[in-house]
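Dear Dr. K.,

Following up on our conversation at the group meeting, I've run the structure prediction for tRNA-dihydrouridine(16/17) synthase [NAD(P)(+)] from Durio zibethinus. I'm pasting the input sequence below exactly as I used it, so you can double-check it against your construct before we proceed with anything downstream. Let me know if the numbering doesn't match what you have in your notebook.
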Amino acid sequence: MNKRKPFLFSLLNIPPKPLFCNPFSLMALNQTQTQTQTRTTHPDLPPNDELLCSNPQQNQDEQSCSSLSDTPPSQIGCPGKYLSGESRVERAWAHWTKLGRPKLIVAPMVDNSELPFRMLCRKYGAEAAYTPMLHSRIFTENEKYRNQEFTTCKEDRPLFVQFCANDPDVLLEAARRVEPYCDYVDINLGCPQRIARRGNYGAFLMDNLPLVKSLVEKLALNLSVPVSCKIRVFPNLQDTLKYAKMLEDAGCSLLAVHGRTRDEKDGKKFRADWNAIKAVKNALRIPVLANGNIRHIDDVRNCLEETEADGVLSAESLLENPALFAGFRTADWVADDEKENLDGKLDQADLLLEYLKLCERYPVPWRMIRAHVHKMLGDWFRIQPHVREDLNAQSRLTFEFLYSLVDRLRELGVRIPLYQKDT
Ligand SMILES: Cc1cc2nc3c(=O)[nH]c(=O)nc-3n(C[C@H](O)[C@H](O)[C@H](O)COP(=O)(O)O)c2cc1C
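The predicted structure tokens came back this morning:
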């Protein structure tokens, strides 16, 4: 890997993260291979994809591994309760500053921003990360769901743990279980999918702002870690600003704004509205993060400049290129005549191999691994589609199979570098 200091770090005056991590503890992995009973399984995936990728007992570091379900709810009191608005804002900034004011952040992604992927992104420049959305009710009720869907380790910080919810008491109970392991408990107020409409959570709570207010207040008054929210914008800017102010007043300590409306589901079709994000940033006093339209590191810089946000979230582009925040870019974002000089000496297959090693260390369901293989090697499969077909035909994945799949692509002569350029 080219170890040049990525330009953004110079720009932001932040030292690059060390390239190696040495996680010491695994949590929440005390069950044997088992089927997840509580989540919606992907209809197009073989049932074995619901299994953990390896026997956690074989992977646990000998040093302290604990089950989340053994963790007692936090005993710490109610820090936000008696604070005035002014003090709450000061406290929000003090916390953000204590975390190093991370600017480059892995967005929450169901089945995709799991521990090994977060650790890979952290190695390549991400300064904070969200877990996938967890369902607060299922999280409180089902130990298997907790153990399988939320894992973390000492190096996995700063960490936002995201829940969807529509009942303040249930949300608090879920949040109390994770607060010792994270830096924010986040409320998903942006999911626009049908499942969120049916479940009455995510962006569909935009139709019930008093309920949203009660969710935020409940956490802000009772948790020891701050509460953050991730929202979508309303079609009308004034509605968005009123909404954002309400969240701040209710005790939200950090707001991530996805600059698309609830109806703008297709991120490729609709550009996120950075002006709306900028208006929210200007109207609020707590830290604000921008989300949408980040395809490469120039977008990161432009987004920070244009929105004046305190950080950016990236989702889709990181799936294809987990090294985006370290300045690596896919071929789409480099002119043909520049390519020869800008080979970053790193490619998506290298990143996939690193990801697989992290999965051996931090077991996750195979369905997550399968999804990442398709995303990271999508361009490679387009050149050798029969290799993709072999992967799809494999109802039970193994690490051996996946490592050999990368070898096969390389033997077939496929290599698509990631590029690096100072801009
Ligand atoms: C696979 C996938 C899963 C996602 N899951 C979540 C989620 O669990 N919670 C959430 O708030 N947003 C979720 N999102 C939305 C992203 O966090 C992000 O808001 C959206 O993709 C826009 O960012 P982007 O333009 O960088 O992709 C998901 C997006 C993707 C692509």
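Two things stood out to me. Residues 340-420 form one domain. Residues 1-45, 56-67, 69-79 have pLDDT under 50 and may be disordered.

Best regards,
J.T.
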